[in-house]
Amino acid sequence: MWSGPRNISTAMMRAWENRSDTVVVDEPFYAAYLARTPGSRGDHPGRDDVLASQPTDPAEVVAALAAPLPSGVEVQYVKHMTHHLLPEDDLAWARPLRNVLLIRTPDEVVASYLRSREVCEPEDIGILQQERLLDELGEMPIVDAADFLRDPESYLRWLCDWLGIAFTDQMLSWPAGPRESDGVWAPHWYDAVWASTGFDPYHPRGVHLDARGESVVEAVLPAYERMYAQRLVLR
Prior knowledge:
Blueprint (H helix, E strand, L loop, with lengths): L1 E2 L5 H9 L4 E5 L3 H6 L11 H7 L4 H8 L9 E7 L19 E3 L2 H11 L10 H11 L4 E3 H6 L1 H12 L22 H4 L1 H5 L15 H19 L6
Parallel strand pairs: 1-3, 1-4, 2-3, 4-5
InterPro entries: Class-IV_PLP-Dep_Aminotrnsfr (IPR050571), P-loop_NTPase (IPR027417)
Family: Belongs to the class-IV pyridoxal-phosphate-dependent aminotransferase family.
Pfam families: Sulfotransfer_5
């Protein structure tokens, strides 16, 4: 599942982790991204802890993702942040996998991002990288967060059917609190998810951006609109 930041990606990870046959991986390229991103863009909360917790070589990350699954596990769900991809990264390893894009309207993403970070550039919110994935990996399901939150069960059922696995209503709710699978960055970002026990109902958000935020939205809007037009729509 390839998402940008400030989306429902961690709640989505909870849904899949609540399956008895599934193991989840939380943002495996985070340390590799930080190690290769100097300056303010790489100055994230808990940076040193993240760098110490994961491989910083992308090839090591790919090898770990390809390792055999634990006994009794049939599904590996990987929560990827697309802004962790750099232009030079080879995506060939992902072609044989079942890839999904999780998108969110960029004005809401930028507004949420700027509540946590002082600076936001187009590359920071992952939408341009999502378009690259679509171009390089080919057609894949695209799920819009607003659509999903209006009817989580239908979208999860569709995804399970597409994957050839059985849906379970255990995916719709989960116990509150942290998990061992959470990345070491969780204390900085996961307060809302730790308090949650399911997906929050969708509600539109009023967004007010300054000129800098608006410029980021304008830079990524064509990519978002292209993906939105190709999104999965369930009737």
